[in-house]
Amino acid sequence: MYSDSTSTVCGPRCSTTHDPAEPPEPAEPAEPPDLAEPAEATEPAEPAEPADDAEPADDAEGDMAVFRRPVKRLRSGRYQLRLSPEERELLRGLPGQLKELLADTDEPALRRLFPPAYIADAEGESEYRRLVGDDLLQGRQAALDLMAETIDATELDEEQVTAWLSSLNDLRLVIGTQLDVQEDEQPGDTPIHQVYYYLTMLEDAVINALSSQYD
């Protein structure tokens, strides 16, 4: 016979002291649940009928997302920028990457941004670069800065959306040069090809918004 106590995983400490002469009475068995009358089943609610005049939103989720216009001209004269978080993250780093390339205007990938004005006249080309080269470069850098500053914007004014158009075109031209994209070639399926096609689509959306009437 012993009287110390031990703890259990079920909670409070349980006493192990007992008297063999007087065994505890067995507990009465619990009555089984009454299964004779099962709970009454509830009838499922009838689905609501769609409204007759409901139209799918052009920025709806799922399959309807293909109808979403990323850029839309508003009655106020501003432009609504409707991009997903994933699209904004894709675009976020591109202006800075292009600005790094622009630090060296002799970079082969930039040849479509600065095409020669005088192909057969080296002296005339050199003078042209001296006169307008810095202005062209600074204009592109300023547009890239403005795009970077408004990556998270939901509305753009005309100056900002024009900067987006300039930057998207420059990015597309540089990536197309790096990929050596040709007009008659089959579409590529690499990630950088997909970025190129996305930029082309977004540039086209900006052009359409700039040339459209307000919504």
Describe the SSE topology.
Elements: E1 5-6, E2 14-15, E3 71-73, E4 79-81, H1 85-92, H2 94-102, H3 122-149, E5 155-156, H4 158-179, H5 191-211
Antiparallel strand pairs: 1-2, 3-4, 4-5
The SSE string, one letter per element, is EEEEHHHEHH
Mean pLDDT: 76
Sheet with most strands: 3 strands, antiparallel
Work out the helix count: 5
Short overview:
The protein has helices at 85-92, 94-102, 122-149, 158-179, 191-211, and strands at residues 5-6, 14-15, 71-73, 79-81, 155-156.
Describe the protein.
The structure is a single chain. With 215 residues, this protein is mainly alpha-helical. Helix content is 41%, strand content 6%. The strands form two sheets. The chain has a three-stranded antiparallel beta sheet with strand order 3-4-5. Strand 1 and strand 2 form a beta hairpin. The chain is globular and about 50 Å long.
